[in-house]
Amino acid sequence: MEIEIEIRQSCCDAAALAACTKLPDGVAAEAKAREYCALNGVIPSEIATCRTLPLGSLNPNRYEVVLIRTAGPFFTAVLGVGTVRIGARSVAVADVKGTGSSGSTPGPSALDFAVYSAREFTARGRVDEVALTGNGFRINGDLHVNGDFKVTGGGATFNGKVEAGHDVKDAGAGATYLGGPPVEDADKVPLVELDLADVKAKAAAEGHYYKWDAEHGRLTTYNPSMKNFQPCDPPPGASVVSGNLKWEGSSEVINGTFYLEGMGVQMSGSSLDGKATFVAEGEIKISGTNYAYKDTAQYAFVSLSTSAAAVDISGSNSTFYGAVYAPNGTVSFSGNDLTFNGAVLANNIQTNLAGTNMTINYDPNQTAMIPVKAASTETFIRLAE
Question: Are 255 and 317 in a shared domain?
Answer without folding.
Answer: yes
